[in-house]
Design goal:
Elements lengths: L3 E7 L3 E8 L8 E4 L5 H14 L6 E6 L2 E2 L6 E2 L11 H9 L3 E5 H12 L7 E7 L3 E7 L2 E2 L19 E2 L2 E2 L14 H4 L1 H12 L5 H9 L3 H25 L4 E4 L6 H11 L12 E3 L6 H14 L7
Parallel strand pairs: 1-4, 4-7, 8-13, 13-14
Antiparallel strand pairs: 1-2, 2-3, 5-6, 8-9, 9-10, 11-12
Helix pairs in contact: 3-9, 5-7, 6-7, 7-8
The structure holds zinc ion.
Family: Belongs to the ROK (NagC/XylR) family.
Organism: Martelella lutilitoris
InterPro entries: ATPase_NBD (IPR043129), ROK (IPR000600)
């Protein structure tokens, strides 16, 4: 049997694909526009990518910006109507006659960090995402805690952020998940923008807020500090609950390593263990953690040991 896995990272605008062989991280990445509205075009695209390979892979492993309903197997992936509400695993297995593994993108990120990245030397790895949303994934012994669904580690949702920071009252903003007061509403890129608009009445993108923060601008500094104070308690609690000894951070905002260091410095004293080493750290498993994590989960399913570089 081949030891090659065909990996996909499926997003609302693009599908990225790469093969990974013998436990190593995926190689060259190819990109296709997501056939967002057409299920049959979507399945046909996957088939054509398999047909273009020199050798038939042993399995397909997919990272997806959504979750799998653990009771029905159907996807909840609102920004890709072509596959939302469908059982993609069953459809693809039927069409390709290959085993298909599907995991949430934050879960893939966490596994990628545990196997290939900053969590390599740790047993419990809690990967956190600060991107268009706030998410996470939990890994123990290199394996996902919640293999069906993708709900474990999702610390970004829950009615938990403080209502007062310093002298300021901060409202519980309504979240896309239906609750209000979620970390997701104040700590991803849209959350930072929302917070800045609330505090200063100023419309500014998250990157612009961060660069103003770096330049020492007082309003941006207050926004970032408020964001840190809002997320720190919930994150410290999640760290206590999981026993994670490393918290790799990914997503667009985490490319700002000064922000990741500031998160670490704010959160670490609030944890019960208060480790001396950095707890929240930048991700190190590369530019394609979705593909790498999908590959790692696929290799685990096939019984192939991962080979970190
Ligand atoms: Zn929420």
């Amino acid at each position: 049997m081949t030891d090659t896995i065909l990996c996909f990272d499926i997003g609302g605008t693009a599908i990225r694909a790469a093969t990974a062989t013998g436990g190593a991280q995926p190689g060259k990445v190819v990109r296709f526009p997501t056939p967002a509205g057409d299920r049959y075009a979507f399945l046909a695209l996957v088939s054509s990518i398999i047909d273009d390979l020199k050798q038939r892979p042993a399995a397909l492993a997919i990272s997806l910006a959504g979750i799998v309903n653990p009771e029905t197997g159907n996807l909840v992936v609102a920004n890709i109507p072509a596959i939302h509400g469908t059982n993609l695993k069953a459809d693809l297995e039927d069409r390709t006659q290959l085993p298909v593994i599907i995991a949430n993108d934050a879960d893939c990120f966490a596994v990628s960090e545990a196997v290939y990245g900053a969590g390599r030397d740790h047993d419990i790895v809690f990967g956190v995402i600060f991107g268009t949303g706030v998410g996470g994934g939990l890994v123990s012994g290199k394996r996902l805690i919640n293999r069906a669904g993708g709900f474990a580690g999702e610390w970004g949702h829950g009615p938990v952020v403080p209502l007062v920071v310093g002298e300021r009252s901060i409202p519980h903003f309504t979240c896309g998940c239906g609750l209000s007061g979620c970390v997701d509403t104040v700590a991803g890129a849209p959350g930072l923008q929302r917070l800045h608009a609330f505090l200063h009445g100023e419309k500014k993108s998250a990157p612009a807020i961060l660069s103003a923060w770096h330049a020492g601008e007082a309003r941006a500094a207050e926004t970032v500090e408020t964001c840190l104070q809002l997320l720190a308690g919930p994150l410290a609690m999640a760290i206590n609950l999981t026993g994670a000894t490393i918290v790799p951070a990914g997503g667009g905002l985490a490319r700002d390593h000064a922000l990741v260091a500031a998160i670490d410095e704010t959160v670490r004293p609030l944890t019960l263990a208060r480790p001396r080493h950095r707890l929240v750290v930048p991700a190190t498993s590369g530019a394609e953690p979705g593909l790498a994590g999908a590959a790692a989960i696929g290799f685990q399913r096939l019984g192939i040991a991962a080979q970190p570089a």
